[in-house]
Amino acid sequence: MEATIEVTGLRKRYGPTVALDGMTFTVTPGKVTGFVGPNGAGKSTTMRVILGLDSVDEGRALVGGRSYRSLRHPLRQVGSLLDAGALQPSRTGRNHLLWLAHSQGLAARRVDEVVERVGLTSAIRRKAGGYSLGMRQRLGIAAALLGDPPVLVLDEPVNGMDPEGIRWMRGFLRSLAAEGRAVLVSSHLMSELQDTADHVVIVGRGKVIADVGVADLIESASGDRVTLRTGDRARATTVLAHAGATVAVTGSDTLTVSGLSGERVVALLGENAVPFSEVSAHRASLEEAYMELTRDAVEFHAAQEGAR
Amino acid sequence: MTGRDGFGQLLRAEWTKFRTVRGWVIGLVAAALVTVLIGLFGAAASNFSCSGPNGQPCAASTPPIGPGGEPVIDSFSFAHKTLTGDGSITARLTSLTAVSSSDGQAPVEDTQPWTKAGVVIKESTTPGSQYAAMAVTGGHGVRMQHNFTGDIAGTLSAKPSWLRLTRSGDTITGHESADGVNWHLVGTVTLPGLPSTVQAGLFATSPHHEEITESFASASGTSYPTLATAEFDRIDLEGTRPDDTWTGDNIGDRSGGRPDGGSPTGFEETGDGVTVRGSGNIAPIVAGRGGLGKTVESGLVGAFAGLIAVIVVAATFMTSEYRRGLIRTSLSASPRRGRVLAAKSAVIGSVTFVTGLAAASIAVPLVRAVERDKGHFAFPVPTATELRVVVGTAALLAVAAVFSLAVGTVLRRSAGAVTVVIVAIVLPYTLAIASVLPTGPSDWLLRVTPAAAFAVQQSMPEYPQVDAGYTPADGYFPLPPLGGFAVLCGYTALALGVAASVLRRRDA
What we know:
The structure holds two protein chains of two kinds. By secondary structure, chain A is an alpha/beta fold. Chain A has two domains: 5-213, Rossmann fold; 224-281, Alpha-Beta Plaits (2-Layer Sandwich), CATH 3.30.70. Chain A has nine helices and 13 strands. The longest helix of chain A has 22 residues, at 286-307. The radius of gyration of chain A is 24 Å and the shape is elongated. By secondary structure, chain B is α+β, with helices and mostly antiparallel strands. Chain B has two domains: 14-44 and 293-459 and 471-505; 72-284, Jelly Rolls. Chain B has helices at 7-19, 22-45, 303-324, 326-333, 337-373, 383-411, 414-433, 439-448, 481-505; strands at 72-100, 108-109, 116-122, 131-137, 142-146, 150-153, 161-168, 171-177, 184-190, 197-205, 209-215, 218-224, 227-240, 247-251, 266-269, 273-278, 281-284, 293-294, 377-378. The chains are: A alpha/beta, B alpha+beta. Chain A binds chain B through residues 48, 51-55, 68-75, 78, 80, 82-83, 85-92, 95, 98-100, 102-105, 143, and chain B through 1-2, 5-6, 9-10, 12-14, 16-17, 20-23, 320, 324-326, 328-329, 331-336, 505, 507-508.
């Protein structure tokens, strides 16, 4: 099976509320695709639609070219983790995986393999009700991996994990993508996807705002801005503004300059004998890039609503 | 890949789900235990004591057993002669009345619908022995009856009526006639292995006058004997020895004869006839509230409590998936939702059936042993009937479990589902059985609610020739066993249909 997820023109409304408004994107193999947006943007609904759990008014979602509901052994093609807390508390972690394995015609041996892979061997025979959130997330990942699927759909898998768990999850997701799987990971915090996602699908209000590679996104968000560290903020601002730059104060001794190249900034400061300690090309964080994008989207919506 | 299209895998998954939650397994074991224990406590707490009149020993709680194996009452006044080989007896019954008197009051006419008198050919004077009779009854015209359970209606009802029985080998033929000239065949019956020498003669008997007064939450009954007087003439016996004279016997007389000799029963020869006076009945014994016997299903009185446990387990088996959000995991593992419902139903139905079968198979013989030990008479039933009661109870529990699961699927909340199913099954059953409601509403409840399925537990048949309550409180259901069971199955099929429909349409 081709390891892809194709989401095309999903529309869904709950009464007057529009949950999905033409959601369209594609997830390709060998990459971690981040699925980012504020809470209520339609991420979880889209994931449930992909997994055949929710119906849509329009559009379709295909996994490897087929609708999820037509799959005979779906867990062998798509592994998913929607809610790590969805466990029968009195059932042991191992028995939870065991019934899932039986439903797909998988042997009990497979359960032990995935448990070992997520590092839950010591706790697996305990009741799931006593698991910490991090252990539940690991159990959920184990369940998703049970059928060795080429496609993974994970809803907020690091939510509630401790820093060590988050670090483990990042590396784990990267290794899954490196095995050639298509990995779709949602988060409402862009920072969680830093150093994890190769590609991000940014959504708001039920549709895609940006569908872009992480490298390109940071590139464009950084623009041709220059970070300047100087002891004389006032003179530096005057000189650079005079030369036609836009200057923003970003710290007690730092300015962000746009409209001039780094070389030109150094030359101008030297000509006017303004002291400075550092001039560097500005590199935006993923979070900043995200904020920039969504700010536009939010303003757009605010303007729209103001016009009503 | 096992199973047709992976359904076997789904069954296995649901079975694993069930057995790995200890609460559910314990719940079913508890269902079996309460079923057995309530039956046992009921039997252990009961007592039976019996003493005869005037300090004589009790006539035993064990009634005679008829040729068909059923307990019978065989009590009547019999004027008879010995009949050897083939032959016949003919008589004209000119008058039949019955009287009752209470506490020394003057007797008043009190003919019962099944007061009866006529001619009879009987294997011997031993109670329970084979017989065939042609009788005129108080309210049901001429009847040909044999071996307690056989009852064929004749056409006459006026008196006088001519009655005739003809014996040929094992076969007895009954005729009736209004004028002694034109005879009409009522029936032909076989008394297998009837000996060559039998007793032929005239009989009269009349059952107790019974009244049951029902009010809300209570029922009280009064019962007192009646005495039939039957006058016969034109008596003709063929096949008796010529010198044989009438012998009188009070068959099945449990009073042992009155010491004062004032017994009103017996016979006397009049000018050209015979008058017979008798009290009692010739009929199968029916079970009932006031009866002294215990039925097979009395060992299963605890089934309603087991049913409650089963309902809770079955509903929770589904609603817990909704409560935890586990339903999404289940449906993403098996996107064809109807099959998930089918697999879950099959698993809960099967485990409940096995549990119910174990509980009923243990409860019935155990409770019967305790009841016998306590001196109760245990109504014998055919093995097939006992099997039907036991297997039927297990099937009732199993189908009710599936019903509960289906309701749980629709409502998604265990409290709501358990309440609905208990109100649908357990409540009507309890109201009807515990004499809380009068017979009318009880019968109605046991026809239209899923509680109708408890009819599978009824082991005693109703006899049209025996007047009795036949109410749910007596253990008699308005619907036949399979009919009542079908009502529950109908409700369950409906609930499953609705459950499958909403499960398919609803977002998980």
